[in-house]
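Ticket #4471: structure output looks truncated?

Reporter: J.K.
Steps to reproduce: submitted the chain below (104 residues) through the standard prediction queue, then opened the result file.
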Amino acid sequence: MSASKEIARCPLGELRSGEGVRVPSEAGPIAVFLVNGEVLAVQDTCTHEDASLVDGFLEGHVIECPLHGGQFDLRSGAAVCLPAQHPLRRFETHSDGEFVHVTT
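Returned output as attached by the reporter:
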């Protein structure tokens, strides 16, 4: 098993509960969300159509795409409402108190 690799980071202070932050990475843009004290990271582009999920509507752990309303569970990346059918890529996160580190 290979060690995890950091692909992105964002200042912990930029995260606000119920909102997302878009961060660039070698894997493409990543959406980092703070939900009930938990930091979750997924690919920022909807799998249904090219739209940024950071601009979507967050309710609990579910993000709704602002373009066509497809929904995804941020904990698993699973598509939970049409027209989204394919899951999002999910990333591991950890914080050192200053930054959120996103890893593969």
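Triage note (M.O.): checked the attachment and the full token line is present. The CA atoms of residues 41 and 57 lie 15 Å apart.
Status: closed, working as intended.
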